[in-house]
């Protein structure tokens, strides 16, 4: 086989040394090829992190960047050849040709998220280059390379969460009126509630715990560089969990978990439209108070599953995910708040144990599944059509994110400056469009007719 036909993955150490000299990295050929036996396969797997850390320990930043760039360029140039020779362009492991064809979904010219530009041979012998619209170009360590704020998506997510909270408040009014009679249906057997006495102040402590977690989360948002991506994820996940809670509350009405609760249905003298208006007013009271007892809101029937546990768990997971990894005390503190908040819910006998367990499980699983898909876009892109059907919100909100969102921080002043510039540009555009419409509206029609008549006169004079 001629040397030109050998793909980089099959290069020997001598060929790698020659390539390094051709690219101007000859001084590192001995280090890579003789000392560390780097052949073609090893060369394609080298990252910038490998170059600057032991055992290579290259200390010149410019050389690291240039060599890393040339290696990445070599990967891009050799992808088609690797696919044709039966190699996975990412792992460099061999696979059969039939596996490659079976792995491409019908209607999509895509095998792996690292194969960005792959030429497919058509039946007439021509070539067509297909670039998948959601191709992921994440860096070697999996972090996203392009992260746009897309504030409008954050506002859409906020609107979605806002609508869901209104629906939740209205459903809470309905289930309160459907709560089973406490005399006829006593509290169900529960391992925790039957063995732990009722603590009157415990439920208030749970809500103060949640308030503290919320303040910590707001602080993280203020300093995080990608705060708008975090916001839309938080609103999207919270809205989805609470929408699911609306369904579970409506399906089955559990009996009241504690005899201390005053859970009598609200009877309205109005009927029809008047009853609906009355329920809307009660729903507004619940929504305004965020469903919290410290705000004077008391409801029954909304047991399966615990909304307080959802809020505590969601805040805890977002704080631990997007705060610096080395602040272990903060992560431990938020987990303790989460666990103590759950304990206070049960100690107050406001929910059954199953309500709290299901709420924690659903919230944590949904958070982990969402972020697993977002951080590994190839999982989503191998079956894009099905993902759009089953995860429409995820597909919409994460279309501009191509990897892990790094935990980078900046001063909140920068955020306010950007918001000011954005609002200023929007205002100027609105004023410009308004002025343009006014100009069109008040242009006298006589001027146009006069111009036409003068044009006709000049034509006659010329004739």
UniProtKB/TrEMBL annotation:
What Pfam families does this protein map onto? PAP2_C, SAM_1
Amino acid composition bias (Basic residues), ranges on this chain: 454-463
Alphabetically, which GO biological process terms does the record hold? amide biosynthetic process; ceramide metabolic process; membrane lipid biosynthetic process
**Cellular location of this protein?**
Membrane
- Membrane topology value: Multi-pass membrane protein
Which Gene Ontology molecular-function terms are recorded? transferase activity
The transmembrane segments are: 154-175, 201-222, 234-256, 303-320, 327-346, 352-370
The record's SMART domains line, in alphabetical order, gives:
SAM (SM00454)
Q: Which UniProt keywords apply?
A: Lipid metabolism, Membrane, Sphingolipid metabolism, Transferase, Transmembrane, Transmembrane helix
Region annotation Disordered: where it falls in the sequence: 444-463
Q: Which CDD domains match?
A: SAM_SGMS1-like
Stretches assigned to the SAM domain: 11-77
Which InterPro entries is this protein grouped with?
SAM, SAM/pointed_sf, Sphingomyelin_synth-like, Sphingomyelin_synth-like_dom
Q: According to its record, what are the GO cellular component terms?
A: membrane
Name the family: Belongs to the sphingomyelin synthase family.
Query: This protein is called what?
Result: SAM domain-containing protein
